[in-house]
Amino acid sequence: MTDPNVIQRAGAKLKRIRGRLGLSIREVERRSRRIVEDGENPDFFLSRGLIADVEAGLYIPGSFKVLSLSEIYGLTPLKVLGFYGIDRPDSDPRERPVFWPPNTQLFAPPDEAKTRDKDFLEAKPTKDTGLVTDLIDLWRDIPVPLLREIDTRKFLFGYVGASDRTMSPLLPPGTYLQIDPKQNRVKKEPPQPEAEPTLRGRAIYFLDIRTGYACGWCELKNGILTLVPHPHSGEQTRTFHYPLEAEVVGRVTAVFFLPISDEGARRNEREK
């Protein structure tokens, strides 16, 4: 396959995916080095120069590089090959990634997904639950009872990134969030009496902070939106000019706990 336009589009897709996951080229290189160590095969290594060439459409990754990209980005090898016009339906598409995306994510609703980030989101407009189930399936299987509760017509869905400990331990990294976009105004609330914060207490909001997304308790006063972390998280309070620097996407109304495995946590910690 030598069509330069296809190669350039494939590289651009991989670059967009890397950006959405919050991974720098240096971080991808570091994670590939872990794969090399685990597999004892230097062919899995992705240098920064090679990644830049792939994204610029100057280089087509070989089979070992495709496997590394797939594992780091949470894609299947078949999906990456498809970017380059290689379709192999006999390949196994069910491999699960070892690495989790560090940034908190908002999954686009079906109507937006049809026209934006189609290659990453893989929306299925013929099924109401297709969008969210496909997204979650990038990282782990989810229980059947949860699928019955998903309604993409009414709610948005998000994910707490592997490096986002703002609401930990209440909402640990790897948690999936159901967000009600109609509840996008921060309400004043009386102090919570309980000694230990719970999900049923103070409202938790999902924010668009322009450079990404965040989740936590919020206070709004004199045009300043304050993101309040869990007191046991060790994270600092952050402030934003509202609505210039931050916007309330909605209120978190339900969560699905999918904490990162011990091995996944160790790998993400090693790559910080």
Question: Any overview of this molecule?
Answer:
The chain has 272 residues and is of the alpha+beta class. It contains ten helices and eight strands. It has helices at residues 4-21, 25-39, 48-55, 63-73, 77-83, 110-113, 118-121, 130-137, 144-149, 262-270, and strands at residues 105-107, 156-159, 176-180, 205-208, 213-221, 224-228, 238-241, 247-256. A hairpin with a 4-residue loop joins strand 4 (205-208) and strand 5. Helix 4 packs across helix 5 (77-83). The protein is elongated, with a radius of gyration of 20 Å. 34% of the residues are buried.
What would you say about this model in short?
By secondary structure, the protein is an alpha+beta fold. It has ten helices and eight strands.
List keywords for this structure.
272 residues, alpha+beta, eight-stranded antiparallel sheet, 10 helices, 33% helix, elongated
Number of helices: 10
Strand percentage lies at 15-25%
Cα radius of gyration in angstroms:
20 Å
Mean pLDDT level: 76
- Give the strand tally: 8
The chain-level structural class is alpha+beta
Taking the sheet with the most strands, its summary is:
8 strands, antiparallel
Head-to-tail CA distance between termini: 37 Å
Question: Shape, please?
Answer: elongated
Order of helical and strand elements: HHHHHEHHHHEEEEEEEH
Can you give the helix content as a percent range? Answer: 25-40%
List the strand order in the largest sheet. 1-2-3-8-4-5-6-7
Low-confidence stretches: 89-97, 110-145, 261-272
